[in-house]
Every structure is written in C-alpha cells, then in structure tokens.
Amino acid sequence: MRVLFVSSYPPIECGIGTYTSFLAKALARTSTELHIVSQYGAEGRHVYPSYSPNDEGIARRIFNAAGKVTPDIVHIQHEFGLYGELDGIAVLELIYRIKSTATPVIATFHTVQKEPEFRKELILRAMCRELDGIIVHEEEHVNILRSVFDTDTAKIFLVEHGARVMTPVAGAKEKLNLENRKVVLLTGYIRPTKCFDKIVDLFPQIVERVPEAWLVLASKLRLLEFSMYRKILIEKINDSPVKERIEVFRGQFPQKTFDTILSACDIIVLPYVVGAQSGIMSHAMTFGKPLVTSNLEAFVAILEKSGAGFYAETDDEYVDRIVTLLTDEEVYNRFSRNAVNYVKAKISWDIIADKTIQVYKQFERKPECRTRHVFVGE
Question: How many CB atoms lie within 10 A of CB 179?
Fold first, then answer.
C-alpha cells in the first residue's frame, strides 16, 4: 500500500514533525510504501517540501504535490495552526480536494478538547463529518469525539502515542555538569497552561527536604504571545531563594541533545492544566524516567495503564510526590521498570506502526477485476 503523510517534518521544529518521523521510520520497516508532503525546510527520503504554513492556496499546493504520488490513502497529521490562517481552516479544503479523487483520507488528531474555541470546534466538527477515518491517542478522545462531536464510532481508531525502545545516554549527567544531583526536569514549549512557574514556586520546599535536588528548565518560547509568561517565569527563577539550584537550558534541541537532557534527569514533572497526551511522557518512559503530572484525565489514564508515576492535585501533593521519587529508591525503581516495560509491551513504535497499518487496511481499495492482485514493496 502506498501511503501519503501530510505533516510537518524534521528538521522543522515541531512536536508533530518529530512524531511523524518516528512513525515513518517504523512504517519503513514494513512493506508500506511511504511518502511525505511537508513544509519547506523538511528533509528526508520520499519527503517533498511543498508549502509554507503562511502560503495562500496552501490546500492546492499540498493537493498538487499529493497528486504526483498517486497514494492509496492520505494520512493527515492534524494540529490547529499547521495549515494556514484561521486555525488552519484550509485543512477542510484539502480534505475535499482529496475526497474528490475518491482517495480515502484519514487524520490523526493530536489535540482533542471538550470545549474548543468556536472556530476550532467548527473545523473539528467538519473534519469528523468528512474524514473517512480518525486516529486518536486516548480513550478520553474517543469519548469526546462521540459525545461532543457526534462522530460515527466506526470512524474512530485508538492508536496510542508511540515511544522508542532505547537505553539512556551514557554519562549524561557528566556531559551536562549535573553529576551528584537529583534532577527534576521541566521541558516543552513555554506557555501559561503548562504551569512551570508552579514548580519553581514549590522548589524551595523540595530543596529543604532533598538538599541535592536540582531543577532544570529545558525549553524555548514558540509563540510571541506567551512572551509575557516567559518574562514572569524567568523573574520567578531569578527571585527564587534557591535560584542557585535552578538551571535553564534554552533552545530547540536536536534529538541527540534532547535525549541527553532526558537521560540526565531523574524525574520529569508535567503540571499542565490544559492538554491531552504528551510526547514528553513517551520520551520519559523511553528512558525509564518516572513522572509527576497534573490530574488531567489523559495523564491519569496513561499513568494508570503504565504505572510510570504519580499524579498530583494540590501543591502539597506535588511536593510530597517529587520528594518521594527523589528519596525512596524502591518506589523510584518500580516506576522506572514499569515505564520501560510499558513501552516495550504496549507502545513501541513498531507496535504503533502495526496498529496504524491495520487502520489503513480498513480503507484499502480492492480491484474490481478477478485477476490476482499483488502489491510489491521496495
């Protein structure tokens, strides 16, 4: 089967692009023939940079590039804003263009919210109606699409967010001058809904109980509209009574560098108040790093399935659970083993690729003639 992805793609700085690259590598190990239409700047085999998110006629540009590949199915990686102005409303035109050729089109929804803003709801509702299939990462998202967006259950497929199977980077703490420290990591794009400032505020209490604790913020600002929050966050760090134990790594890190940062930390904290599944959770579990998260429904569901960490509802719970992981070796090791085992058994990229192929097969068009039909991969 020849599959066409529409997505951002490395070295473009985008979590969706990173997701797509890992899935593409896993699919490449199967008989699936994969092609990728992406933004200018994307690179790789069978990758066709064809548009800019700010282009006029973005749907036409993507469609014209897709037509040259003549795919059996088109798979859109969807996130609001990836497909032009007005929250990426051009994705609807793209779907109609593809459907006009009788080519099945599916999408992975990377953001699903119960109460999105008006325009996002409009776009998502239309996509749910017109797409042939929809992939989501969490059972909560399945329920939202059914109950809020009245989506046909037969269209929805649950395929978890994948994770790599690999060992931590050797000597990571030494490489980052973090040796002999118990490192608490905050990472991801800086935005108010991630509440990194909460952990900065609580960190003096953690240091009081764990003197070797060290807080690392590894992040960057993606949207200028959040620059005021970044200013507030940095001011909190500068004013912290334990600021000498807080370190900031700034930048969009190449995967090798990011893997080193993840390997150097002891635990990862996600105090988000808005969100769903997180690629950071998958990266953390790859390296067996226990998690402390907020009580977002999707986070709680992942922790209950994986046994890879705690969730917290109050400030005291954040402090207690971070301290427990930094001081109780038995609890730490249990969560770490659970994370690694969960990845290997449930969400390795090879497993996720197989599940994705099973979705594709639901839409495979069989030839009407009675002669034998054979697809020969590369």
Answer: 11
